[in-house]
Each structure stands twice: as structure tokens, then as C-alpha cells.
């Protein structure tokens, strides 16, 4: 019984990701070039192209660890966490968690948060388009429904809390090949950041604790009541009406819904 | 669906996008990689702006038509939704596979050329054409290895696929040259084994010659100008298949737009000569 197409493709996958050429090599015509060298052409294509995808998404991580180490980390990541689908703009979201558990860069404690920020920036750039709605949209709901409403934020919006000054680290290391990065004081303190698409680019905004908790809760699908409580829990002086007005004023709100179970 | 004339196009790549939107250069059409424009994203907004002035062809790399596991339906639906928005002049994919065990391997991987593989590709092409509601163009791949149990020559397999599914072919002349060189085969004989009415589009690109010379190993990297041998094959292809719309692809070490358009002008001159020969005959 000869090898089925499914078996061949499984053997190819094992060769590309696990470096296990044995099963595939037996199926290949050498034609004057060892099977291992022929397989290597494909393995190189896969590893190099996916490393490039990750380097494009994580330029600051690449700059902070240098390109060689990045290539090593990317190889370990992509062979153990390969893409599931061909839409590669969605690939690489697990890289920060991977780096957090990757022993060779354990001393760089801030690195996973830099990666988290870069993933939010990348995701913001590739998020779906959505048109902002005005505050007047809220008034079209009966007042008794208001506490249970869910305000949908623009799909590009994401939040990051970090004990490190990751916004400065990111700004100082914007390209993988940057020659000289500005020195960043790691002791400068933590940040509460919101990332969102702005015009043709992506903008970072530093938020106070109440506003951060409120907007992060909304972004996570919380009701207005739950989001306001989160804001007040983070900051006694949190000004709910002002924060709500700013959600509309900043163009962040794109929809209002009443969850089906309320 | 927009009609495409037998004209020359170029691949639309990120570094050229702003210049193209600002200057609207004289070129017949643009081709994009389908997977870069999925979803209702800013990338699609930019593409639709270009689309307002030019025909656009969708060239996919992710359908994995050769997968034994069948087609990723979610991906196919995203491609179909994109085609609805763009109204492309052409939609093409490859005779290859890239998905196995739920993993996308991000390369155009080679198939064994067997009856079993032909059945799998034909079923997947049929499913894709059904979802897209249109004829798909299938491109011959560049390959760097052959399987021992292959029994069908590549051009014959492509011809059988056309017959079974009603698809047509995207003949990549550079891939013909790369594959034939890598296996010491005759590229002109390859062209003559392709049914003459099947070719609906032609691709032209540069390749990379590895240090290995005996036998040579060429890699299809789309990183250079089109070489003289490939231009020669292009002339032969035009003579055999007629004036199919033709495209210059350039994906690595992307040059200034002017260089890419220069390659397109060269293709236009060659196509005009072929037209002239046609008219005289």
C-alpha cells in the first residue's frame, strides 16, 4: 500500500515543524540532490517567512533582544505555535506569553509587556472598520434600560496595564534595525495604556486608574453599571459622567446594545 | 465582474501603495494577495480606492487546494466575501497545499502527482468555484522536489483538472522555467503540453539562482527582474496561448515603482510584437 496524500502531508508537516525528515525523505526522488537539502528549501521558506511576519509585528522586541536572538526565539515559537489559518494578520498573539516562559530571556522582565503592547498596536492597525456613534444614541434608549446597556468600543481599542514604562521602551525601539535607541529608565514606573487606531496610524493614550478601569471594562463587554463600578473601585474620585462623555467625544463608541439576558 | 483586456498588470505591494494612490500610473490592472485584504479592514478600504480606477485580480495563497483534509470553509467564506466587495477581474490560486493537521504552513508545498491527489484538488477546486460563484484560475507551482510515486506529468495533471472542474490556468512562465531547470526538463515541451485554450493569465517574475550548479537549483523568490530565458518563454507562450493578461510579480527586495513599471513596459512591447505577428498571420 503506497503512502496516502494525508500521510504525506502529515510527514511534510513533521519535517517542517519538528525537523523530523525521516518519513518524508523516503518519498522523495533525490535527482542528484539529497532529499534533506530539498526539504530544507521548504523549511527555510516557512521559517524565514513566519519569522518575518513576527519581526514585522514585534519590531521593538526584535530591537531589544537583537535580530539574532529574535530569530532564535521566533523559531522556537513558530515551530511550537504555528499559525492555524492563512490570515496571517491574526498570527502571533501568543508571542508575549511565550516570551514570558522562555528561559533564555528571563532577565528581561519587561519584554513580555513590550510584546503585549506591540500586539495591541498591530491588532489596532488590522482591526475592522467601524463608524463612531454620537452621545445622542444613548438618549434613544428608555432611562430604565441605561444601567444594563453595553457600549461597544471601536474594535481597534485595547488596554494594557504594566509595571514597566513600556510606552517609552516601545517608542525608543520602533524598528528592528534601529542603530541607536534612546536610553529608557526602567524605574520610571508603570503605565495604564489605551491603544486605538487614529487616522491612518495607531495612537497610545496614557489613562488615569479610574478611566482605565472603566474603558477596559467597556472594551471587555461590561454593562455601563459594571464599568462605572470598576472605575470607582479603581479611583474614589472617578467622574462617571465625564468619562462617559469622553467615550463618545473621543469617537470610541461604535454601538449600544442591551444584552439578551438583562 | 469587470472585464479585463489582454493587458499588462503588476502586483500591488504595500511600499508602492501611497505612490499609486497619489499618481494613478498608466497600467492595465493590479493583482493583490487575497489573504492581505480579508475582513473589513483599513487595508480593504485602501484597496477599494485603487479598485475605483483599475481592475483588480485576487491571487490567493491560502486556500490549500491540494489538502487531503479538504478546504477550510471559514477561510473560503472570507475569500468569497472579499470577492463580493472587490468584484475582481480574475481570481486565482495554486496547484499546491499549505494546510495539514489544522496548521497553516505558509508556503506553496508540492503535491505528489497521482490520481488520488488529482481527485482531492478537483474536489477542492469544485467546492471553491461553487462558493465563489465563478471560474478559478490555477497556477503551476515552482517545485524543489518530486515524489517517487508521482505518475502524472504536471502539465497533464493541470489539463485534467481543467477538464474535470472547468477551471482555467494561470501559467507562471517563471515557475515553468524554475521547475523545468530544477529537474532538467524542457520548458518549451512543458508549454506545448498545456492545452492552448486553458490559459487565462500569465505571470512573470524573477528568481534566485543558488550556488549549486550541477544540477542547478533555482528558487522562485520574486526578488529580481525577469531573466532573458523567461522573456523568451513568454514570447513562446503568447504565440501558443494568445494574448492572455500578464502580470509582473515582485515580492522581495521590492524596487521603486518605476522599476516595476519598467518591467511591465517591457512585457507590453513583447505582447505588442506578438499581437503584430498574430495580425499578420
- β-sheet strand percentage of chain B: 15-25%
Which two chains form the greatest contact, residue counts included? A-B, 43 and 54 residues
Main sheet characteristics of chain B: 8 strands, parallel, barrel
Order of helices and strands of chain B: EHEHEHEEEHEEHEHHEEEHEH
Largest sheet of chain A: 3 strands, antiparallel
What structural class do the secondary elements of chain A suggest?
mainly alpha
> Biggest sheet of chain A: strands side by side, in what order?
3-4-5
Q: Kindly, what is the distance between the CA atoms of the first and last residues of chain B, rounded to a whole number of angstroms?
A: 32 Å
CA-atom Rg of chain A in angstroms: 23 Å
Radius of gyration of chain B: 18 Å
Helix content of chain B: 40-55%
**What's the total helix number of chain A?**
12
What is the terminal-to-terminal distance of chain A?
60 Å
General description of the model:
The complex is a heterodimer of chains A (262) and B (281). Chain A is mainly α. Chain A has helices at residues 5-18, 22-25, 35-57, 59-65, 67-80, 95-100, 111-126, 136-139, 166-172, 209-219, 224-234, 240-249, and strands at residues 28-29, 150-153, 158-162, 191-198, 201-206, 253-257. Chain A has a 3-stranded antiparallel sheet with strand order 3-4-5, with helices on both faces. A two-stranded antiparallel sheet of chain A has the order 2-6. In chain A, strand 4 (191-198) and strand 5 form a beta hairpin. In chain A, helix 3 (35-57) packs across helix 5 and helix 7 (111-126) crosses helix 9. The relative contact order of chain A is 0.11. The model of chain A has no long low-confidence stretch (mean pLDDT 94). Chain B has 281 residues and is of the alpha/beta class. Chain B is 41% helix and 21% strand. In chain B, the strands form 3 sheets. An 8-stranded parallel β-barrel of chain B has the order 1-2-3-4-7-9-10-13. Chain B has a two-stranded antiparallel ribbon with strand order 5-6. Chain B has a two-stranded antiparallel ribbon with strand order 11-12. The radius of gyration of chain B is 18 Å and the shape is globular. The mean pLDDT of chain B is 94. Chains A and B meet through helix 1, strand 1 and helix 3 of A and helix 2, helix 3, strand 5, strand 6 and helix 4 of B.
Amino acid at each position: 500500500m503506497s503512502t496516502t496524500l494525508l500521510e504525506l502531508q502529515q510527514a511534510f508537516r513533521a519535517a517542517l515543524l519538528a525537523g523530523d525528515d525521516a518519513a518524508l525523505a523516503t518519498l522523495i526522488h533525490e535527482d542528484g540532490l539529497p532529499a534533506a537539502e530539498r526539504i530544507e528549501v521548504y523549511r527555510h521558506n516557512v521559517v524565514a517567512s513566519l519569522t518575518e511576519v513576527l519581526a514585522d509585528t514585534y519590531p521593538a522586541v526584535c530591537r531589544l533582544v537583537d535580530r539574532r536572538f529574535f530569530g532564535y526565539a521566533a523559531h522556537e515559537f513558530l515551530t511550537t505555535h504555528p499559525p492555524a489559518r492563512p490570515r496571517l494578520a491574526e498570527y502571533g498573539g501568543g508571542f508575549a506569553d511565550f516570551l514570558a516562559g522562555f528561559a533564555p530571556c528571563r532577565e528581561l522582565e519587561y519584554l513580555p509587556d513590550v510584546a503585549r503592547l506591540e500586539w495591541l498596536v498591530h491588532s489596532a492597525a488590522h482591526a475592522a472598520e467601524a463608524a463612531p456613534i454620537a452621545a445622542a444614541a444613548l438618549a434613544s434608549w428608555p432611562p430604565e434600560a441605561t444601567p444594563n446597556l453595553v457600549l461597544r468600543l471601536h474594535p481597534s481599542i485595547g488596554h494594557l496595564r504594566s509595571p514597566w514604562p513600556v510606552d517609552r521602551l516601545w517608542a525608543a525601539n520602533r524598528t528592528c534595525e534601529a542603530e541607536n535607541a534612546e536610553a529608557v529608565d526602567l524605574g520610571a514606573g508603570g503605565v495604564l495604556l489605551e491603544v486605538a487606531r487614529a487616522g491612518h496610524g495607531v495612537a497610545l493614550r496614557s489613562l488615569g486608574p479610574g478611566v482605565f478601569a472603566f474603558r477596559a471594562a467597556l472594551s471587555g463587554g461590561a454593562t455601563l453599571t459594571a464599568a462605572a463600578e470598576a472605575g470607582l473601585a479603581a479611583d474614589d474620585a472617578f467622574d462617571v459622567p465625564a468619562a462617559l462623555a469622553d467615550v463618545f467625544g473621543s469617537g470610541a463608541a461604535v454601538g449600544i446594545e442591551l444584552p439578551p439576558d438583562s | 465582474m469587470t472585464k479585463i483586456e489582454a493587458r499588462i498588470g503588476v502586483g500591488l505591494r504595500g511600499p508602492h501603495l501611497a505612490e499609486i494612490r497619489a499618481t494613478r500610473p498608466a497600467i492595465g490592472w493590479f493583482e493583490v494577495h487575497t489573504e492581505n485584504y480579508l475582513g473589513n479592514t483599513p487595508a480593504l478600504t485602501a484597496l477599494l480606492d485603487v479598485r475605483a480606477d483599475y481592475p483588480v485580480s485576487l491571487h490567493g495563497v491560502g486556500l490549500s487546494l491540494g489538502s487531503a483534509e479538504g478546504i477550510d470553509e471559514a477561510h473560503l467564506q472570507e475569500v468569497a466575501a472579499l470577492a463580493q466587495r472587490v468584484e475582481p477581474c480574475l481570481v486565482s490560486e495554486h496547484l499546491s497545499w499549505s494546510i495539514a493537521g489544522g496548521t497553516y504552513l505558509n508556503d506553496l508545498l508540492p503535491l505528489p502527482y497521482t490520481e488520488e491527489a488529482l481527485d482531492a484538488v478537483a474536489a477542492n477546486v469544485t467546492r471553491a468555484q461553487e462558493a465563489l460563484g465563478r471560474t478559478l484560475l490555477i497556477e503551476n507551482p515552482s517545485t524543489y522536489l518530486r515524489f517517487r510515486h508521482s505518475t502524472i506529468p504536471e502539465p497533464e495533471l493541470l489539463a485534467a483538472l481543467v477538464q474535470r472542474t472547468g477551471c482555467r490556468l494561470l501559467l507562471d512562465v517563471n515557475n515553468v522555467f524554475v521547475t523545468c531547470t530544477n529537474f532538467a526538463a524542457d520548458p518549451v515541451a512543458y508549454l506545448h503540453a498545456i492545452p492552448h485554450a486553458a490559459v487565462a493569465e500569465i505571470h512573470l517574475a524573477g528568481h534566485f539562482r543558488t550556488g549549486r550548479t550541477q544540477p542547478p537549483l533555482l528558487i522562485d523568490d520574486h526578488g529580481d527582474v525577469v531573466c532573458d530565458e523567461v522573456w523568451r518563454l513568454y514570447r513562446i507562450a503568447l504565440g501558443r496561448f494568445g494574448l492572455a493578461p500578464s502580470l509582473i510579480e515582485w515580492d522581495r527586495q521590492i524596487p521603486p515603482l518605476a522599476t516595476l513599471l519598467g518591467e511591465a513596459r517591457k512585457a507590453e512591447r513583447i505582447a505588442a510584437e506578438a499581437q503584430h505577428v498574430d495580425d499578420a498571420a
